[in-house]
Amino acid sequence: MGKSTRLAFGETIAQLGEIYPNIVVLDADLSKSTMSNLFAKKFPERFFEMGIQEANMIGVSAGLALSGKVAYACSFACFITGRYDTIRISVAYTKANVRIIGTHAGIGIGEDGTTQMGLEDVSLMRSLPNFSVCQPCDEIETRELIKYSVQHQGPMYIRLTRQNLDKIFDDDYKFEFGKGVQLTEGNDAVIFATGALVAESLKASKILREKGINLQVINIHTIKPIDKEIIVKSAQECGLIFTAEDHNIIGGLGSAVAEILSENYPAKIIRIGLPDVFGESGTPEALYKKYGFDAESLAVKIETHLKKSS
Amino acid sequence: MYKHKQLQQIANELRIDIIKAISRAKSGHPGGSLSAIDILVYLFFNEIKRTKENALDPERHRFVLSKGHGVPALYAVLARIDLITYEELMNLRVLGSRTQGHPSYLDLPYVEASTGSLGQGLSVAIGMALAAKIDKKSYRVYCMTGDGETQEGQIWEAILSAPKFNLDNLCVILDYNKSQIDGYIKDVMDLEPLKAKLEAFKWNVLEINGHNFEEIENAFNIARETKGKPTYIIAHTIKGKGVSFMEDNVEWHGKAPNEKETELALQELEKLLVSNG
Fold first, then answer.
1. Which chain A residues have a beta carbon less than 8 Å from that of B167?
2. Which residue in the set A62, A69, A88 is minimally distant from B124, CB to CB?
3. Mutation target vs B (from A60, A83, A86, A99; most B CBs, 10 A cutoff)
């Protein structure tokens, strides 16, 4: 098991602080959880503890960004995207170089339950003009994404996990903003996955391979702007199309893929995500099993649909 | 430095521009533009001394209009110092114009921030003041807030946070014209006792008549000289100041005058010019 993507973020931003004096980091009393405390320890003069006031933190970040800084505003995904109108006007409408860092995304946080789970955040952030939305799937991709984010022009939403994730990429992985990443070959079915569900999809592809089913796994780290070419190409190659995300099925990756395919290559899409419900408390493992996000559930679902369609 | 008499004359000339622009647009907020204009004129001409040359200088003093609906007053000032044309001011709210109904930073960078969803501008101003501190730059940041928007939670988050960072380079001016869309502030959601609240939040608080240039100048001087904490100027103003039928009349918060009302307003304002000039 590799690191959580929040830890990879904290370590990377603390390293980048040495290279880029224009990086500033803000947190709203969760720096030990978002891991922004790693930056705070090294660069106290460029770290701002804002207390539990996310809206003000976002506005202050916008002001810093409009003064030449790249501002990383960190909190839990649900709390920070909950201050939507401030993100909309102070950040998106000024195209400020703010990085909204939303950690503890999805039901994967486990026991804390619904109020701490970011479950609609991608949907919210995806509909803001000027915003890019990214969700890395492992520690290496997180590191490379965060490195990229310093240079990006315009605001970004970056969605990170609380839980540790399998390490998928090698050290020499090259992150390409806006490009999907094909992880496995196959043309029986394709699954477009993001974040924590990339590792589960990969494991599902192994289970299916043993049964003679070849699943193409595509990692979508940039949900907006989304990689239209890879989505259309993979859909054309494969008979069945799935999307998988630890997020409400409304407005997230599944919706983004559906938008692309409905206009370019109309096809049936099976969206895997939270079926427009809130989460609940439980271990991450138990929750993933209940909502069908674990590798075995994914494999069963894909196999069942393949049988139905043949 | 402009003399107070000159500033008064400019402000009254800009009142005419504001009425003309809102009248042509057939929508907009005359009351809160007329209450703010004297302070804005002093600020831009004598305090931050904005010119075409320094308007995008990284070292410039910043001004954020958090009460974004008062933007006709800001556009009038920007037109006066040639940052926008008179035609642009008169094309307020017209399709394709940079003079959007509320300040849009991407359309017109001189507004410094996009505002108009109330309660947000002060946080942005705090970010700018923090940037000056960490970059050891001497620019100051000014932010005008509205009294109605002071009911927003984010404003109080911002008020709580600025003293923590010892932002003595930050100065807030409250355009306290006492009314908002639904009525008088005291009836809708009272702010009082405001001075005591702000002092309890560790601000340097000043209280002035926002139409008296002597008092405005004095307050900005004190703000500049106060070290270790931010300054909050409670500027008592009159909504619709300068047009008798608009003064202290809630009805004129967000309504454009019709042709006849415009004529009456302009007659009154032109008289002010004569008597003052």
1. none
2. A62
3. A60
Domain ranges across chain A: 5-159, 181-309
Q: Does 3.65.10.10 match the CATH number of domain B4-276?
A: no
Contact A80, A58 (CB under 8 A): yes
The architecture of the domain spanning A181-309 is 3-Layer(aba) Sandwich (3.40)
A94 at interface of B, judged by CB pairs closer than 8 A: yes
DSSP letters, B46-97, are IIS---TTTTT-TTSPEEEESSGGGHHHHHHHHHHTTSS-HHHHHTTT-TT-
Assigned architecture for domain A5-159: 3-Layer(aba) Sandwich (3.40)
pLDDT tens track, chain B, 277 positions: 999 999 999 999 999 999 999 999 999 999 999 999 999 999 999 999 999 999 999 999 999 999 999 999 999 999 999 999 999 999 999 999 999 999 999 999 999 999 999 999 999 999 999 999 999 999 999 999 999 999 999 999 999 999 999 999 999 999 999 999 999 999 999 999 999 999 999 999 999 999 999 999 999 999 999 999 999 999 999 999 999 999 999 999 999 999 999 999 999 999 999 664 4
d(CA A101, CA A13): 11
Mutate to test the interface with B, among A27, A66, A72 (most CBs of B within 10 A): A66
Chain B: residue nearest A60 by CA? B127
ipTM: 0.97
> Could you say which of A24, A55, A63 has the minimum Cβ distance to residue B154?
A55
From chain B, the residues in CB contact with A71 under 8 A are 127
Strands A23-27 and A47-49: parallel
CB contact under 8 Å between B131 and A68, yes or no, is yes
- The pairing of strands A215-219 and A181-182 is antiparallel
